[in-house]
Write a structure and sequence with these properties.
- The protein has one domain: UDP-N-acetylmuramoyl-L-alanine:D-glutamate ligase (3-Layer(aba) Sandwich).
- Helices cover about 35% and strands about 25% of the residues.
- Helix 1 runs parallel beside helix 9 and helix 7 packs antiparallel against helix 8.
- The longest helix has 16 residues.
- The radius of gyration is 18 Å and the shape is globular.
Length: about 300
Amino acid sequence: MKIINLGSINIDHVYQVDHFAQPGETLQADSYKVFPGGKGLNQSLALAGAGVTVLHAGKVGPGAEWLIRLLQDRGIDTSLLSESARPTGHAVIQVIPSGENAIVIDGGANRDLDEGLIQRTLAALSPGDFLLLQNEVNGVGDMIRACADRPINVVFNPAPMTATVSSYPLDRVDWFILNQVEGSDMTRQADPEGILKAMLKRYPKAKTVLTLGSKGLLYGDSQQTFPVAAESVNAIDTTGTGDTFIGFFLGAVMNDRPLKTALEEGCQAAAICATREGAAKICRVSSFFRLRRGKSSAP
C-alpha cells in the first residue's frame, strides 16, 4: 500500500513581524528566511516521516532541483514530478510573536497540471492505495472524478478554500480533513458541531476530520462521532502544523493503528511542529516524534 500526493510545491518567504500588516501600512520585518513549503510538499514530508511509501506528483518551475532533492533525500518517489515553464509556486508568510501566521500564495507551476500528469498518476495507483489532494493545484475535480469507480481511498484537504471546491464531485471523496474556516465555508455553519453534522448529512459515506487548532478536533462518520484534545505547547510558528497533522494521521491509518490513536498521533506531531520554525521544520519533527512515541509506550 502506498499514498500518492498530487500536491503543491512552494518556496516560502517567511517574515517575522510584530503584527500583521494592515491596509496602507509598510511594516519592517524583524527577520526574513526562505524555506521549502507548499501544502503538498509539507504533507509528503510528514507522510514520509510517518513511515509510509509516498509518491509526490506535481510540477515545479526551472531551478527547483533543490526542492526535488529534498523530497528524494526523505525517501519520497519523485517520478511523477515534472517541470513547468511557469515559476515554482511561492508563498509570502507573516508570522507574529504568538506563532499565528498570515499567508499569500501564488500558484505558479502548481496551477499547470495537465491531463498527461493526471493520467500518469492514475496509472500509478493500485487497489487499496491512498490519493491525497489539496486545493493549491489545478485538476483536483478531474482527479476525484477519475477515481470514482476505482478502489482508491481519496483524501481531500480543501485548502485553500475557493469557490471552485463546490464544483468538485465531493460525494466521491472518502476522507475530508478540514479546519473550522474551511468547514464553515463548505456548510454555512459556524460552530464545530454544526459543521460536522452538516458534513455527515451531505457526505454520509465519507469520514470527516474537523481540526480546531488548540481545541483539538472532531471526528465523524456514519457510525460514530467523538472529539480528540490537542496537546498544550508554547507555539512559536504554526506554519505547517495542519499539514503535519494530515501526514502523521494518514501515516498512522495506513500503518493500521486504531483510528483514535491515529488522530492522537496526528495531534501530537502537529503540536511538536508548532514549537519549530519554518514550514520545512516538518523534516525535524519525525525523529523527535518517533522518540517521544517510543518513550510514551515504554513500561
